[in-house]
Amino acid sequence: MGGTGGFQFTGKVISVRVSRTNDLTRITEKMRDLTRHCRFWSHATLLFTLPYATYVILMYWVQLATVIPESLRDPRETILTVKPHSIFWTLDALGFICMGSSTFLAAFALEKSDRKACRLRGFLLANGLPISTRVFPP
Question: How far apart are CA 39 and CA 61, in angstroms?
Fold first, then answer.
């Protein structure tokens, strides 16, 4: 977390903060209207975003609230420390597998006639396809 572990221990999180339920409802309805032509893909995408958010929030909440402050006092590793094949490493990996699956499925929810959508589809597929090889290297 302090930048000393290199890029193998870094991740990217994008979040949308909604302060009122009405805003969430409006965003959800807008997304539903934009993807009316392919509800299956948009619902499948949403299905993977929920576990992604759950895994990543749990992982980073525990790390930021307990592990890092405790490691400043006592640098010994505990069961909560993130290291390869530990429980929190696995939670983080599951979160990113769900994120990759979500972006992969989102590519199919875009219209096929729009040129910008074709480029975006390519980026979404490129992000979603190799997720399992990036998370669990041999």
Answer: 33
What is the CA angle 103-104-108, rounded to 5? 105
Name every residue whose Cβ is closer than 8 Å to that of residue 92 and which is 6 or more positions away in sequence. Answer: 11, 55, 56, 59, 82
Q: Could you identify the residue written with the tokens 């669990």?
A: 136
Q: Would you place residue 16 in the very low, low, confident or very high pLDDT band (cuts 50, 70, 90)? A: low
The CA distance from 34 to 19, in Å, is 22
Query: How far apart are the C-alpha atoms of 55 and 87, rounded to whole Å?
Result: 11
What percent of the chain clears pLDDT 90, i.e. is strictly above it? Answer: 1
C-alpha dist (Å) from residue 64 to 32, 52, 72, 116: 34, 18, 12, 38
Contact call for residues 104 and 128 (beta carbons, < 8 A) = yes
pTM across the whole model: 0.63
